[in-house]
Write a structure and sequence with these properties.
single chain; alpha/beta; Rossmann fold; five-stranded parallel sheet
């Protein structure tokens, strides 16, 4: 008998993708039931699935704005697409409750099995058989963001882990003087340029092109792998903050064992978001985690900007299960600010947390527990 997988579409597309990935076999038909407002998400789901050998794709769309509130309109339209010679696997996780009731009633009269995913939990419930079916699928970062119509690209690690770790140890130790911090701060002016070290150590000192006295000595102290007296713009980006993103990348990789982790995820322009880049992004148990990495947060206004960005990210991309974090090497801040971040759904980690192994282990453990 032919098989059709039925999905009801809502703002949360991940449960649809997980259900199809678990149930799909080559040649199966895919049926999507959606309001007109949610119709565009069907293509998001298909793009994320990237299925090559699907049978027929059937879209049942309620064209008028309030059709999903009209029982007979919904039931009659769904029935017109169904067959007695088909086996239906119906996922009730999406849609409105009223749509779910209508779909359930219609499919009860056909050869169908009803399922529900208590997302973000990783199992499928079958009400008729009382089965609890584990979800084996684990989504990558690209899978997850594609499901929200967000195309991405990411960058590679700039330097080996052992150098990044040693630079972190140097940065948080008493060895880094104010003069070294000034050097790093001045380097920011050159983040988009390839430079000769000797040139910027001796150039005329201007706001746009500052002279950086002692740069060679600093690079020698930290044992930075300089080639031909030059720094590329990517090396400068690393020295002026990229190193901390890489440190956090390695820290998460070792202590959380994510299903997938990406560094410097650049979100390409889309209608769904105006957020441009994400420092460290990983998936664990089909949940998305995003970490904004800052070596310093110099003012309350800058702190608020970072928190609002994280909050916007949570609203646009993370869905019900997503988590956002700000990792900073600032000393502890006003508890009021930390509470502001928490109230907006973001966890703020500062230098005192990084220096406390017990606190960090507690954080890693909580992330792992959330994934189940």
């Amino acid at each position: 008998m032919n098989k059709t997988i039925v999905s009801i579409i809502s703002a949360q597309t991940i449960p649809n993708i997980l259900f199809i990935k678990e149930m799909y076999e080559d040649g199966d038909k895919l049926m999507f039931i959606a309001s007109r407002v949610m119709e565009s998400k069907i293509n998001w789901i298909l793009n994320a699935l990237n299925i090559q050998n699907a049978g027929q794709i059937i879209n049942i769309v309620f064209e008028n704005n309030d059709d999903e509130e009209r029982w007979n309109v919904m039931c009659d339209k769904i029935k017109s697409y169904l067959s007695d010679n088909e086996k239906y696997f119906v996922n009730l996780t999406g849609g409105t409750k009223y749509m779910d009731f209508a779909v359930s009633e219609v499919f009860e009269k056909y050869d169908s099995t009803i399922y529900y995913i208590p997302y973000p939990k990783n199992y499928i419930l079958s009400p008729r058989t009382h089965d609890n079916i584990p979800i084996k699928t684990r989504l990558s970062v690209a899978d997850y963001l594609t499901a929200y119509n967000v195309p991405i690209k990411n960058k590679e690690l700039a330097l080996p882990e052992d150098f990044t770790t040693s630079f972190y140890d140097f940065y948080v130790s008493d060895k880094i003087s104010d003069s070294y911090r000034i050097i790093l701060d001045k380097l920011r002016a050159y983040r988009q340029k390839n430079v000769e070290i000797s040139t910027i150590e001796s150039c005329e000192d201007t706001e746009k092109k500052p002279r950086i006295d002692g740069l060679s000595e600093f690079l020698n102290i930290i044992k930075f792998p300089v080639k031909d007296n030059k720094l590329t713009k990517y090396e400068i980006q690393y020295l002026t903050g990229g190193w901390f993103e890489e440190y956090v990348y390695h820290l998460i990789n070792k202590n959380v064992s994510p299903d997938d982790i990406q560094l410097g995820v650049e979100i390409q322009k889309s209608e769904s978001t105006n957020i441009n880049d994400l420092d460290v992004v990983f998936t664990k148990g089909n949940k998305l985690y995003v970490i904004e990495c800052k070596t310093g947060v110099g003012s309350e206004s800058l702190f608020n900007q970072i928190v609002y960005k994280a909050s916007a990210l949570k609203e646009k991309l993370l869905g019900l299960s997503g988590k956002s974090y700000i990792f900073s090497l600032n000393p502890p801040i006003d508890d009021r600010l930390k509470s502001t971040a928490q109230n907006m759904g973001t966890t703020y980690i500062d230098l005192s947390d990084f220096m406390d192994d017990e606190k960090m282990n507690k954080l890693f453990t909580s992330i792992i527990k959330q994934s189940y």
